[in-house]
Write a structure and sequence with these properties.
With 279 residues, this protein is an alpha/beta fold. Helix 6 links the parallel strand 6 and strand 7. It is elongated and about 65 Å long.
Length: 279
């Protein structure tokens, strides 16, 4: 293993890890430089198991035994080891899970490739909250969504917080950013998908009354926090769906609504053998 002990937070070799709390800077810098940050040993493992290549590792000494097998897989990749106080000075926050990796960002997947074998797709319009986006990806992985598509103004699925909240599910679920919005929705429909929008709009169908299993290919459109889907996106939808509310509640958080819709609209065949769920 290429272990490098550090005691200086200003070491130039740590440039990938600086200003991690500056969201706007990282959202510009990381895609431009072809990198993303994997935080925690579990997320880091899922990243490399998905075939993503590390640029370097950064961890506290106590995490060395836990990650020794991962580091051994990449003997030429530097593994920087530093006391927790130095790590906090570098990153700008306390590393509760004590391990980071700067990863090479994988090449974007072509939309045609993503849609070729998909049965259920989630399409996200302008979701800017990384916590919500990460939660949507985690639900997508757990509840049978084959791919996630995001609009140009949506948050970055590979931003550190989205990756962490998803518990690495962003590496499991194929995703792509649609460059032309909402025009690219036509390509999804052309691939045989029915476009179903989750929206409080006149004529919307209650989710439980929608015959989801009658649709071989279904794409669920989810809007931004608060405002929901734009009129332009709604105009592209074949049907609008709502989740009936009780107890005087008028709506759910978008990540919670997504999970409900994913489950209700899941694709099932006679060969499916679903497992249990932990609550």
């Amino acid at each position: 293993m290429a272990l490098v002990e550090l005691h200086d937070a200003d070491d130039p070799r740590l440039a990938d890890y600086r200003n991690l709390t500056d969201v706007q800077l990282r959202l510009v810098r990381e895609p431009a430089e072809g990198l993303y940050i994997a935080e925690s040993s579990k997320v880091l493992r899922r990243a490399v198991d998905a075939g993503h290549a590390p640029r370097s590792f950064l961890l506290a000494p106590k995490w060395l035994p836990d990650l020794e097998d991962v580091l051994a897989r990449f003997p030429s990749v530097p593994a920087f080891v530093a006391p927790e106080a130095v790590l906090e000075a570098i990153t700008g926050f306390h590393l509760h899970r004590g391990a980071l990796a700067a990863m090479h960002r994988p090449a974007p997947l072509p939309l045609e490739e993503i849609l070729a074998s998909a049965r259920r797709v989630a399409i996200i319009e302008d979701m800017v909250d990384h916590t919500n986006l990460g939660a949507v990806f985690r639900s997508a992985a757990a509840l049978g969504i084959d791919a996630v598509l995001v609009s140009p103004r949506s948050a970055d699925p590979l931003y550190r917080r989205a990756v962490r909240v998803s518990m690495g599910s962003v590496f499991q679920v194929p995703w792509a950013r649609l460059p032309s919005w909402p025009e690219d929705l036509a390509a999804v429909r052309a691939a045989g998908f029915t476009l179903a929008a989750l929206a409080l709009t006149p004529g919307a169908v209650a989710l439980g009354a929608f015959p989801a299993r009658g649709h071989e290919r279904l794409a669920l459109l989810l809007g931004t926090e608060g405002d929901g889907l734009t009129d332009a996106a709604l105009a592209e939808a074949d049907v609008a769906l709502t989740i009936p509310m009780h107890g005087g509640v008028d709506s759910l958080n978008v990540a919670a609504a997504a999970a409900v819709a994913f489950w209700e609209c899941r694709y099932e065949s006679t060969a499916d053998t679903p497992g249990g769920a932990a609550v």
